Amino acid sequence: MGAGDYQTLLEGAWVTIWISVIAIAGGIPLGLLLGLARISKLPVISQIVTVYISIGRATPLVTLVLFIFIGLPVLGISIDRYTASVLTLLLNTACFNAEIWRSVYQAFPRSQIEAAKAVGMTRPQYFRRIMFPQMTFAATPGLVNEATLLVKASPAVAVIGIVDLTRVTNRIASQTYEPLPPIIIAGIIYVVIISGMVRLQRRFEKRAARFASIEG
Amino acid sequence: MTDWEIVFSEWPRFAAGFGTTLTLFLLSTIGAFLIGMLFVNILYGRNRIARKAVGIYIDGMRMLPFLIFVYLLYYGLPSVGISMSAWTAGIVGLTLYHCAYVAEILRGAWSQLPSGQAEAARAQGHHGLRMFGRIILPQLVLNSAPILGNQLIYMLKDTAFLMIITVQELTYAASSVQSMYFVPLEPFVVALLLYWLMSLSIEGIVLIVNRFAKERGLGDT
Asked: Chain B partners of A99 at a C-beta cutoff of 8 Å?
């Protein structure tokens, strides 16, 4: 492998990183929205969201990205490869994030809500000022864990021709006729990225635990 | 013919793809459990070097995307003289990848067991494989049923990656019907519903196992 090949690998890594980052950044608020919609007792909406989350969690990314990339243009929505990839990852991760937000919401101490009501706060007020900041703390480790799962599932976008860190190994091998070195190096880059995220998750876990003990 | 009629007339293709997905899933589930059980025994065993090696293997797999591991098996290994068909690479990949996750889940469940229990079992004359099979393992599985169920769903979803190395599973079938007749939406809808059905069945089994566990005072409350 020459210097040019290393650069190609880094370009692939960059594609993996930026599509994942956009999907993670979009998937967390969308997950919150879906999670709250599911908890809400709004008729029809909460049922639809429940079914959507259930299907979304069971959907392989490879199938979903094909569905979105090939299916949407037929409905009159033109979409390029990169948008389709980001949208796929985002829609998928949002379903898992919704469940994380939901469990954090349901575990929220009732006594605090009652105290907030007793001092005359309205529901939107105590949600925004009291529940949401603490829910964020509690949800962060789970959300980071889901983000690492997203990075591990992101190679699925290779199926519609995105040259990410996985697919780029094919491109290098087609020139050098030695597939093993680029695959091993790509694997090492993944391990570096994901182990960094795992370390971040542990730090957030410690912080969340400390926060909970102060509250406790 | 409408698009749906085309899709239904191609049902043998979907059936074959679904069959392949199910076969891959079931065989690799069995394989991953067998190796996972072996690994967890090594992790709780006496051999320090084996313990360390298994620990590194598990951590490594948990930081690697499934597809790059399959690439390694299917595209990488032939250059060191090990060639496999796409199907074999798929099943070997699924098994060797997910056994690490299964082992980690079982290890987590084992660490929650009171240590006095194994000592009591030894004092009663239980030991080795039979003690693991009759006393430890049932508790590990019953206590971690929901997490194991989740892992099974991930394993099911990972079978779809194998179409990238040309394994003719369910997503491959949907994709080939799509490109043959240019019906862009319906084949994938069928595939998605079948995946959903499978994961609902897995969740159903988990619920039953969990109820069984609770009757015995195990499982999460």
From this structure: none
pLDDT digits (tens, 9 = 90+) for A17-69: 999 999 999 999 999 999 999 998 889 999 999 999 999 999 999 999 999 99
Q: Which residue in A53, A89, A95, A183 has the most chain B C-beta atoms within 10 A of its own C-beta, making it the best mutation to test that interface?
A: A183
Q: Which chain B positions have a beta carbon within 8 Å of A169's beta carbon?
A: 68, 71, 75
pLDDT in tens, A165-177: 999 999 999 889 8
Q: Extract the residue ranges of chain B whose pLDDT is less than 70.
A: 1, 220-221
What's the pLDDT tens digit per position in A46-59? 999 999 999 999 99
- Taking the Cβ of residue A153 and every Cβ of chain B, the question of whether any pair is shorter than 8 Å is answered with yes
Q: Which residues of A189-203 are buried (b: 16+ CB within 10 A; e: fewer)?
A: bbbebbeebbeebee
Q: Helices A180-215 and A3-39: crossing angle, nearest 10°?
A: 40
CA distance readout (Å), B5 to B10, B169, B172, B183: 9, 21, 19, 10
Q: According to the model, what pLDDT value does residue B174 have?
A: 95
Test A54 with B196 for CB contact under 8 angstroms: yes
Task: Give the ipTM.
Answer: 0.90
Q: Which of B62, B167, B179 is nearest to A60 (CA)?
A: B167
Task: Read off the tokens for B146.
Answer: 């929901």
**What pTM, to 2 d.p., does this model score?**
0.92
